[in-house]
Automatic annotation (TrEMBL):
GO terms for molecular function: ATP binding; ATP hydrolysis activity; ubiquitin-protein transferase activity. It comes from the Eukaryota. It comes from Funneliformis geosporum. Keywords: Signal. Residues 1-19 form the signal peptide. Residues 317-384 form the ATPase dynein-related AAA domain. Gene3D superfamilies: P-loop containing nucleotide triphosphate hydrolases. The keyword Hydrolase does not apply. InterPro entries: ATPase_dyneun-rel_AAA, P-loop_NTPase, RNF213. Transmembrane segments: none annotated. This is 2771_t:CDS:1.
Length: 399
C-alpha cells in the first residue's frame, strides 16, 4: 500500500509525529538534529519510488560511479591483493619471468598501494564498460573468482616461471584467459539485466522471452585449475569449434611427449566414464573411491556443475534456473557428493514461515562446524520472505 507509506513519510518528516489508533510516535526534540535515512526498494521502472510523491520534495544527492570509492585491503592474502599483484606483473609484462608466492618463505610481504589497485581494476575489469556497472558486487565477483584461480597458479610447480622456457608466453596466456573468464562470470548478469530492461518495452511475451540470454546461446568457455591434479589446467566448452587459439596453445603446452597428436576434447561425443573422470579432476582433491548414486552425466551437465563449483569456491551465490522437474536438485546434490561437502535443501513455497527458514539456517550453522555445507533453496521465487533470503545470500546477513 504505497499510499499509506507516502502518508507515513509525510507525517514523520513534515510534522515529526505519526499516529495509528491509540499509538503515537514522535521524533525527539533536541539541539542536535535527527537524521533519517530511507531506502526505497528497486522495482520495475521505479514504480514504487514514483508512487511516493513525498520523495520528490526531498533534497537528494545522486550518487555516480567512482573507482576511487573502492576500498583496498592491505592484507597480502586478501582476494583483492592477490588479484592486483598478478595484474601488476601482467600489466608490466613481467608475468612470464617472475613468480608470485603467497605461502612460502619467499612470499611477497608488501601490499600494492590503493591507487595502483584501483587503476588495475579499472583497466582490466571495466574495459570501457563502467556505464553498465551499478554495484561493487560485480567487482567482488570478478576479484573473488580470479583470486581463487591465481592462488592455484601461484602453487603450481608446472607453471612456475623458472620451469618454463623463458621465450614462452604460457603464463601470460593463463592470466589473460583467467581474466576473460572472470569478467564473463561477473558481467553475464549485467548482460541479462540489459536484455530484461529492453524486453520491458515489448508487449509481445515471445519477443520479451527471446531477448533474455539463453543457455544454448553461449559457448560457456571455462578455463581453470584442476583440484585433483592442481598442476594442470582444463577447459570446458559446449562447441570446440568456437574455442580460441590461445586456449588451444595453453592446453597443448601441458602435453608431455608428441604434441602433434594432441587434439581438443569433444565433450558432446565423450563417453560417460571420460566425463566422470573429468569431473573428478575438477571437483575432487582426494583419489579415494566414492560411493555415488547413479547419474546420467553429459557434457552439458558437466559444464553446469563446473559453473556451480567455481562460483561456490569463489564465494559467489549461485542461482539455478529451469523448469520444475528438470533435475536442478539432483544435479547439485550429486555435485555435493562428488566434492564431499554436506548438502541440505529447503523446499520453499508461499506458505512457509520466517521461523522455518531461520530454523533451517541455524541447523545448517551447527552442521557447518563439522565441515563445509551447501544450502539449496528450492523454488525461491514462490517464497514470501525474499527480503530475508536476499540479505542472507547477497549480503551475508542473518536477522
Amino acid at each position: 500500500h504505497p499510499q499509506d507509506v507516502n502518508m507515513f513519510l509525510f507525517e514523520l518528516l513534515t510534522l515529526g509525529i505519526v499516529s495509528t489508533n491509540v499509538d503515537i510516535a514522535c521524533l525527539p526534540s533536541s539541539e542536535t538534529p535527527t537524521h533519517i535515512f530511507i531506502e526505497v526498494a528497486s522495482s520495475a521502472e521505479q514504480h514504487f519510488l514514483n508512487s511516493l510523491p513525498v520523495t520528490g520534495y526531498l533534497l537528494f544527492n545522486h550518487l555516480t560511479w567512482n573507482i576511487k570509492n573502492l576500498r583496498i585491503s592491505r592484507e597480502i592474502s586478501s582476494p583483492i591483493q592477490v588479484t592486483c599483484q598478478y595484474l601488476n606483473l601482467y600489466d608490466r609484462k613481467e608475468i612470464d619471468t617472475r613468480d608470485i608466492l603467497f605461502q612460502t618463505e619467499k612470499a611477497i610481504k608488501d601490499p600494492l598501494p590503493e591507487e595502483r589497485c584501483q587503476n588495475l581494476i579499472a583497466k582490466y575489469f571495466f574495459d570501457k564498460s563502467s556505464d553498465d556497472i551499478s554495484s561493487f558486487r560485480f567487482i567482488e565477483v570478478f576479484i573473488n573468482f580470479l583470486a581463487d584461480q591465481l592462488v592455484r597458479l601461484s602453487s603450481s610447480q608446472f607453471f612456475a616461471a623458472e620451469n618454463l622456457v623463458k621465450e614462452t608466453n604460457i603464463r601470460s596466456l593463463i592470466v589473460g584467459n583467467l581474466i576473460e573468464v572472470s569478467k564473463d562470470f561477473a558481467t553475464r548478469s549485467i548482460k541479462s539485466k540489459v536484455a530484461q530492461l529492453e524486453s520491458m518495452n515489448d508487449d509481445d511475451g515471445n519477443v520479451r522471452f527471446g531477448k533474455i540470454i539463453q543457455w544454448d546461446d553461449s559457448n560457456h568457455i571455462l578455463v581453470f585449475f584442476n583440484s585433483q591434479t592442481p598442476d594442470s589446467i582444463s577447459a570446458l566448452y559446449r562447441d570446440r569449434t568456437k574455442v580460441h587459439d590461445n586456449i588451444k596453445i595453453l592446453l597443448k603446452s601441458q602435453v608431455i611427449g608428441d604434441q602433434t597428436k594432441w587434439e581438443l576434447d569433444d565433450y558432446n561425443t565423450m563417453s560417460a566414464y571420460a566425463l566422470f573422470t573429468k569431473l573428478e579432476y575438477l571437483a575432487r582433491r582426494s583419489t579415494e573411491k566414492l560411493e555415488l548414486p547413479e547419474y546420467a552425466l553429459s557434457g552439458d551437465n558437466l559444464i553446469k556443475m563446473a559453473l556451480i563449483l567455481l562460483r561456490a569456491r569463489a564465494h559467489i551465490p549461485v542461482i539455478v534456473c529451469g523448469e520444475a522437474g528438470c533435475g536442478k536438485t539432483s544435479l547439485i546434490a550429486y555435485l555435493a557428493k562428488m566434492v564431499e561437502v554436506q548438502f541440505q535443501a529447503l523446499n520453499l513455497h508461499a506458505g512457509i514461515s520466517k521461523e522455518i527458514i531461520m530454523m533451517f539456517i541455524k541447523d545448517a550453522l551447527k552442521l557447518a562446524e563439522k565441515g563445509e555445507i551447501w544450502l539449496f533453496f528450492d523454488e525461491i521465487n514462490t517464497c514470501n520472505h525474499i527480503g530475508l533470503l536476499a540479505d542472507l545470500i547477497s549480503h551475508r546477513m542473518l536477522d
